[in-house]
Every structure is written in C-alpha cells, then in structure tokens.
Design brief:
transcription; Arc Repressor Mutant, subunit A; Rossmann fold; alpha/beta; Putative transcriptional regulatory protein YxjL; DNA-binding; single chain; NreC/VraR/RcsB-like_REC; 226 residues; five-stranded parallel β-sheet; 11 helices; 5 strands; 2 domains; Tscrpt_reg_LuxR_C
C-alpha cells in the first residue's frame, strides 16, 4: 500500500525537505504541501491523504486548529486523515491538546530521517503510538498538571471488562498488537477485537487517545511504563 501524505509547515526549507525525503520512499507519495493550517486543510480536502505532517506553530491558522478541522470535519465531509504533529518542543501544551483532539502522535522536527519515515508508516497503519518515550513523557507531564481530567477519565473506564482494562494498560505502555498478543498469549485478532471495543466504549478516535485516557485515569502511573 502506498501512503498518501500532505506536509504542512510554514518554513519552506523544512516543508520541502520533508516532502523530498518522503517522496524518495517507494511506499510513500507526497500528494500536497501547504505553508499554513488554513491552506493545509484546503489541500487535504482536495487530495484525501492518509497522513498529514502538521506543524504546530504557524500563521493564518495554527496546526492544532487545523488538526481539529481535519479530525472533526463538518457534515458532508467523510475523509479523516491520520495527523502527525511536528514540533521543536518535546513538552508542548499544544501537542497534548492535539493528542486529545485525535492526532495520532507527534514527532520532533530534528528527528532522524529514518524515524520520520517510520513514523509516517506507523501512523498510517494505526498500529502503535509513535515516539513512545517522548510521547509518554509528554503525557505524564500534562496529566500531572491536569488532575481534574483524571476524575472524568476514571469514570469512563468503569464500563470496561478486566481483560479490556488489561489490554488498555499494555497499549499505554507502548506495546503493539503483536506484542500484546504475545504477552496475553492470545491471537492477534483477539487483541484487535479488544481494541475495537475499547475505542467504541471509551469514545476514543484511535490508539493515541486510549493512551491519554490510560494515563489520565491513573491506570498507568507516570514513570511506570517500560
């Protein structure tokens, strides 16, 4: 499968550099670029990408607002791409808000080329939260600052079965479906079924939001994830 990508960044050199690096991959097709969030949304509406690389801080419309428009489109718009936020700050309030809004994860702009390419593939597959060590640190930091979110998250977890709760904890620790299946000694398809139920029961958009909920609820204690 070829992954269709749109790159949105207000720095011309960064945007064109990312686009060139990704276009060099046989399984990635850069179908559009934009210098700000507003035009990024317009390009995505026309090109229907699988993944959007979205800078956070931009003129006209910042990446957070643009991500929200893509992830929660108006009536009549059915396409929802995966969004990978780009930032120069690894502990940025905007990133946490983007994860809550449904972004699949984030990547530091100075990440190695191989990490950028792998991040796009991982986000497209929807299998695992990317940059788990940095993302986990971000979520841990933000959950400490937002204790009120924990009470709401705990209430949302009340309807889960013991096995679903166990799977959620493993997801929050950064395990892929294959790794969770091995840990629980079950078929990978069984894990996928649990994931589908978790997303439906918790009203989450994707794996990233499940991780946020696991930390906010206290199911995973900051600093305990391996």
């Amino acid at each position: 499968m070829v992954v269709r990508v749109v790159v949105v960044d207000d720095q011309d050199m960064v945007r064109s550099g990312f686009a060139a690096l990704l276009s060099a991959q046989s399984d990635i097709d850069v179908v559009g670029e934009a210098p700000d969030g507003r035009r990024g949304v317009e390009v995505c509406r026309r090109t229907h990408p699988d993944v959007v690389l979205m800078d956070i801080r931009m003129p006209e419309m910042d990446g957070l607002k643009a991500a929200r428009r893509l992830l929660d489109p108006p009536p009549g718009v059915t396409h929802r791409p995966k969004v990978l936020m780009l930032t120069t700050f690894d502990l940025d309030d905007y990133v946490y808000e983007a994860l809550q809004a449904g972004a699949g994860g984030f990547l530091l702009k100075d990440a190695p080329v191989a990490e950028l390419v792998q991040a796009v593939r991982v986000i497209a597959a929807g299998d695992a939260l990317l940059a788990p060590s940095v993302t986990r640190r971000l979520i841990e930091d933000m959950t400490r600052r937002r204790p009120q979110a924990g009470r709401q998250a705990r209430l949302r977890l009340n309807g889960l079965t013991p096995r679903e709760t166990e799977v959620l904890g493993l997801v929050a620790r950064g395990l892929s479906n294959t790794e969770i299946a091995g840990t629980l000694v079950v078929a990978e398809q069984t894990v996928k079924t649990h994931m589908t139920r978790l997303i439906a029961k918790l009203g989450a958009r994707d794996r990233a939001q499940l991780v946020v909920l696991a930390y906010e609820s206290g199911l995973v204690v900051p600093g305990s994830a391996g």
